[in-house]
Fold this protein.
Amino acid sequence: MRSLSRDLDARVRARLDARLDAGACTPLAVALSGGGDSLALTLMAADWAQARGRRLLVLNVDHGLNPDSGGWARMCGEAARRAGASFQALAWTGPHPARGLPAAARRARHGLLANAARAAGARVLLMGHTADDLAEAAAMRAEGSTTPSPREWSPSPAWPEGRDVFLLRPLLGERRETLRTWLAARGETWIEDPANADPRFARSRARMALAGSARIPAPDGDDGPEAAAELSGHVRATAFGLVLDREALRRAAPSAARRLVAAACLAAGGGSRPPRGEALDRLAARLTGEVEVRATLAGALVLADGAQVAWGRTAGEMGREGAGDLALEPGVAAVFDRRLEVRTESPVRVFPLAGRLSRPAPSHRASLRGVPPPFRGGLPAVERADGVHLAGSPASGVEVRLLARDRFLAACGAVPDEASAAALSAGLAR
């Protein structure tokens, strides 16, 4: 038993060391549901953080779906205190859907966790997924689900709440049974959520079908992450979106090109779900060809001529999705159209440039000439005494951060660890 504990601790510690910045001053966050997987992770993360002088923040989400959930949150708080960590309880409030409840709960959980981690200054959120979760995701897909396999390192799927937050799953190579044996040897107890055995839910059915299985199937292969990360270096961020030399896309391996196109559509369109399936396949094939392309996917307009590909947003697409004016408070960062983080030192309203194209301040008319006409109306602007200014210009008084660039690099796998994530949010990454 002592050997099992040492080996497990060493494996998890190595994964934490490989991804985390031991000398960082920011806290490290961990999601704790109270189940065996997340409890084991919390205890291991506490040991790692204490040895390296880092603060650990334990986050628990009460979904309000079980009458005992309040007591579970209190147990998680006690576990965090025993581990010497800070604790924050979060709650999913408001109406819950009658259909699609597991997916809605997952979206709410990711959003709450990402918001809390980012507010605390944490760039990395640890989650307790295991090898059994990989097998369950594969079993669900075999039954027709689109559930993806969890990855060891990935950007938060919550958007825009999850900007600057990455997920690390250091237990992904471990079995659930091994973790429970490890906990029992330490005298720990954990929560067994009855929802995990409820046959109404696809995840529960997959878990029950795989119970007792000695073999865990390998996760599906990832679509060219290394090649896509290298290819992402050819992409240039602009005020309207992203631009890529089309020849670089033509030379890329099909899997890398497909991944890059999906990431660019996701980032430039500001959506919450990456495109996939036949629509993505058709667009990637067209963009690696020679003909001119004009297409819309995942909320992004894609324009390609013989030399380059451009991804951006149109005012029409923004209007269809309800994106509009944004009132900014001094010193408070806000997100415009899910793709630009804006900040000001004085109250101002940011709005799409559409409808005001005839009134730009003289100094910014030249800037518009470098923007493809379909994208001009989607640019953020503010009204000043001398006319309409593009947000981000010195005269506008509004700072703009291009979230599409950062999100694109993260989606392509070009941000491999916590130190890279810190450089990205500081604007130091390529």
User: Anything to note?
Assistant: The mean pLDDT is 89. Residues 324-402 form one domain.
